[in-house]
Amino acid sequence: MPRLTPTTGQLQFPTVIHGTVNPAAGEAAKQVGTARAEAATDVSWAEACDAAIETMAARGFPFQAADLIAEGLVDEPEHPNQWGARFGAAARHGIIRDAGAVPSKRATVHKSLCKQWIGVRAARGEVAE
To answer: What highest taxon heads this organism's lineage (predicted)?
Structure first.
């Protein structure tokens, strides 16, 4: 029998409902969403964001999207989903790698978890001078 959790009020089922947890379907939905975000992204913003990611990657410190804005390297995208497409592309091209999840620095998201990234060369100790 499903129940509501006392702290969050979310409905929980005592057993896994087959078909509700499907990693392959989740990955496919992610790819579709990323493609939509990419198609809706202004080319000049994408180029500026890519350059900002490369700049931060070369510094050798973990960073998140909020750092690109704080450093004045790029403006906000038209939609927040456009960040993921750019960071995903940089990761696929070997510029950055996932460096864990940390609280977001953005006040608007109330410190929700977000990915932080580090430059691949920096992670290997090859920091640009």
So the answer is: Bacteria
Instruction: Write the DSSP symbol of residue 76.
Output: P
Report the alpha-carbon distance of residue 43 to residue 25 in Å, rounded. 29
Q: Which amino acid is at 104?
A: S
Helix 43-59 / helix 81-92 crossing angle, nearest 10 deg: 60
Entry pTM: 0.78
Q: Cβ-count burial of 123 within 10 angstroms (0-12 exposed, 13-18 middle, 19+ buried)?
A: middle
The count of other CB atoms within 10 Å of the CB of residue 67 is 17
Pick one of 1.10.10, 1.20.120, 2.30.30, 3.30.70 as the CATH number of 43-124: 1.10.10
